[in-house]
């Protein structure tokens, strides 16, 4: 399976490392900033790096030829329709909430702010609307009393994201397709950014 990884920062690097250990071919890494640690990790591993022309949008030319699946890992760029069409299975991303709850940025912070006793993670199909694509995999975890967003992310949600991504990739390798369950819009919440 040929993967184009779009991402940044620490979660992008840990996703890259997980993919390298998961018997897939990472054919290109796409970043918004050439100085990002994900770009450095990819270059060190001998993987081609492309820097987005527009940091808010990934276009087809930035997706490697013959890509089977686009994976996003800590990317705030929209993956354009043309880019998704350039990949055989489209694209998936990880969102650290039980979608459709807490769509948008700062999902973990909103989980804490809202006092949610349960959090979780979702692998979802990339679509026109941010965080609104069909669900490929989802799992929950408890939130500890007094836990900060960072503590919840590091303890449970980041490791959960890597596990769910690996599960969906394994499914795609066997079935040559992605699991898909439409999100129930009646439960959707969209978190404004925290300022």
UniProtKB/TrEMBL annotation:
InterPro entries: Formyl_transf_N (IPR002376), Formyl_transf_N_sf (IPR036477). SUPFAM superfamilies: Formyltransferase (SSF53328). Keywords: Transferase. Pfam families: Formyl_trans_N. Residues 51-157 form the Formyl transferase N-terminal domain. GO terms for molecular function: methionyl-tRNA formyltransferase activity. GO terms for cellular component: cytosol. Signal peptide: none annotated. Coiled coil: none annotated. This is Methionyl-tRNA formyltransferase. It comes from Bradyrhizobium betae.
């Amino acid at each position: 399976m040929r993967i184009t990884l779009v991402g940044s920062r620490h979660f992008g690097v840990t996703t890259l490392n997980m993919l390298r250990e998961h018997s897939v071919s990472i054919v290109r890494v796409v970043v918004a900033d050439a100085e990002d640690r994900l770009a450095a990790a990819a270059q060190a591993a001998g993987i081609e790096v492309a820097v987005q022309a527009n940091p808010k949008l990934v276009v087809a030319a930035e997706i490697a030829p013959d890509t089977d699946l686009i994976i996003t890992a800590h990317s705030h760029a929209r993956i354009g329709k043309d880019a998704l069409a350039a990949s055989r299975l489209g694209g998936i991303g990880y969102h650290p909430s039980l979608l459709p709850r807490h769509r948008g940025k700062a999902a973990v912070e909103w989980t804490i702010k809202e006092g949610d006793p349960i959090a979780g993670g979702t692998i979802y199909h990339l679509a026109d609307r941010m965080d609104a694509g069909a669900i490929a995999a989802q799992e929950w975890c408890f939130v500890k009393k007094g836990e900060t967003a960072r503590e919840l992310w590091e303890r449970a949600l980041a490791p959960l994201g890597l596990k769910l991504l690996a599960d969906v990739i394994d499914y795609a390798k066997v079935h040559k397709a992605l699991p898909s369950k439409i999100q129930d819009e009646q439960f959707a919440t969209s978190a404004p950014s925290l300022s």
